[in-house]
Design a protein that fits this description.
By secondary structure, the chain is mainly β. The chain has one domain. Helices cover 0% and strands 38% of the residues. A five-stranded antiparallel β-sheet has the order 4-3-2-6-5, with no helix packed on it. A two-stranded antiparallel sheet has the order 1-7. A hairpin with a 3-residue loop joins strand 2 and strand 3. The protein is globular. The chain starts with 9 loop residues before the first strand and ends in a 5-residue tail after the last strand.
Length: 81
């Protein structure tokens, strides 16, 4: 089930008790955030560095799971070419 807000933005679903986001792959690191992607529909997700618990891998091939601090609402965005 895909949850959306009033602007038709897809809200990120968390899994498990550890507040995880699964099946991400690293794309880009900025000063404040990490950009992750997913393959099923080529959407991207920006996660603030301060919201990530335990780190992430800078591997553009390996799928990974990250833990996120709550409360936070994140949105998948359409990739703009």
């Amino acid at each position: 089930m895909v949850m959306e807000n009033n602007n038709d933005e897809e809200i990120v679903e968390f899994s498990g008790l550890d507040n995880c986001i699964e099946d991400l792959y690293f794309e880009l690191e900025t000063e404040r955030a990490i950009m992750f992607g997913r393959q099923k529909d080529d959407k991207i997700l920006f996660v603030p560095k301060t919201a990530i618990k335990g780190g992430w891998k800078k591997d553009k091939v390996l799928h990974q799971t990250i833990k996120v601090r709550f409360p936070i609402t994140l949105f998948w965005k359409e990739r703009k070419f």
